[in-house]
Specification:
Layout: E1 4-8, H1 13-29, E2 34-39, H2 43-48, E3 57-60, H3 74-95, E4 99-102, H4 108-117, E5 121-125, H5 133-138, E6 144-147, E7 157-158, E8 161-162, E9 167-169, H6 188-192, E10 201-206, H7 213-225, H8 228-231, E11 234-239, H9 247-255, H10 259-267, E12 271-274, H11 281-286, E13 289-292, H12 296-305, E14 309-311, H13 321-332, E15 337-339, H14 342-347, H15 349-360
Length: 361
């Protein structure tokens, strides 16, 4: 009998890419199987999923972002979740998935619940140290919770019930193989790098698929304050993201549709800018220093390529899980990672600037 896998993830590359890698591994272990990927309706979701031939079907779920402070939107979100549950029941009955895997997110809850009711195996990937709200909600449904962090087990509790016994250690689902550590062949990345100079040091700023306005501004302020001698010795690869422009940058973009390339051109710095790129291995290989947030996918990729890295964990009112990620990754790779708190970058930017120069030698 042909086996079917449901994978469900949406919202960011950090959720979707690991689910894709896990689904691809499952597909290899089950030749002739069917893989159905359930995701959101954003342009990013569709872009990431457009080039994976092992996926037989992509199903887009419409679900607005849940914002706890906006209480007046609760009825609408609850209605959408209920409708998704009914749709999920229909899909599970129709396709009879043997396994459902997910990396979390509200969109996964109705599908995993429907699958568990109808006998599917539920496998959850919690790739941060501290489980998110959706993963915690899914713990009672999960047959197994895969995690790359040993510390995650102690956080797997819901309403006083310990689900740590369901945790299984795994490698982070990296999208690269060992050969990716070498520059070879003509990829879109290597062609873009042709204009880079071998004598310059390369800074790779990774804002993630959503981008980071804070990292963008920190790098911009560093470059604006740097001496001409420094500017003549560096070049930049910059993931600007799709949603990181400030109101001022939006105004500038109205007059100039390519803000960041023009910014680097004015400073005389060779640069590559992009919002999302499917194949960034050559960018990693080119980098002498990486500056990034502490999303699990990013820091494990940096570790894979063995690059010096400055990590600035995101601290938000709703979550501080990146701080835990940063602390754990420094324990595992102390020779690669240096952590600078976000508050320090804001209040004492020279700490970041000095660290950049030190790391670049």
């Amino acid at each position: 009998m042909q086996k079917t896998l449901f994978a469900v993830a949406s919202g960011s590359g950090g959720h979707i890419l690991p689910a894709l890698i896990a689904a691809g591994k499952w597909h290899k272990q089950n030749p002739g199987s069917t893989v159905i990927f359930c995701t959101g309706t954003s342009s990013l979701d569709k872009k990431i999923l457009s080039s994976y031939p092992f996926i037989n079907l992509v199903i887009n779920f419409k679900l607005d972002k849940f914002i706890p402070k906006k209480v007046w939107l609760y009825p609408k979100v609850f209605l959408q979740v209920f409708l998704l549950f009914m749709k999920s029941l229909s899909l599970v009955i129709k396709h009879k998935p043997k396994t459902i895997i997910s990396t979390g997110g509200l969109i996964a809850i109705p599908l995993c619940f429907a699958g568990r009711i109808l006998g599917s195996r539920i496998e959850i990937y919690e790739l941060n140290v501290v489980p998110g709200k959706a993963v915690k909600a899914l713990m009672p449904l999960a047959h197994v919770i895969y995690t790359p962090f040993l510390a995650t087990k102690k956080y797997c509790r819901l309403l006083g019930v310990d689900f740590g016994h369901r945790c299984r250690m795994c490698d982070y689902p990296i999208r690269f193989d060992a050969g990716a550590r070498e520059l070879h062949g003509e990829t879109s990345c290597s062609i873009a790098l042709a204009n880079f100079e071998k004598t310059r040091k390369t800074i790779f700023l990774l804002g993630g698929s959503q981008g980071s306005l804070m990292l963008n501004n920190a790098l911009k302020n560093f470059l604006l304050g740097a001496s001409k001698n420094i500017l003549q010795t560096i070049q930049i690869i910059h993931q600007t993201g799709e949603s990181t422009r400030s109101p001022r940058e939006v105004q500038e973009a109205a007059a100039c549709s390519n803000y960041w390339p023009n910014f680097y051109q004015k400073l005389g710095i060779p640069a590559i800018t992009f919002s999302y790129h499917e194949n960034v291995k050559d960018f990693y290989n080119q980098a002498d220093l990486i500056i990034c947030r502490a999303g699990a996918g990013t820091i494990f990729e940096v570790a894979f390529f063995e690059k010096p890295c400055i990590v600035i964990p995101l601290v938000a009112s709703s979550t501080s899980h990146q701080i835990e990620n940063a602390c754990e990754i420094v324990k595992q790779y102390p020779h690669l990672f240096t952590v600078i708190e976000q508050s320090t970058v804001v209040s004492q930017p020279t700490v970041l600037y000095k660290t950049i120069l030190q790391k670049l030698g």
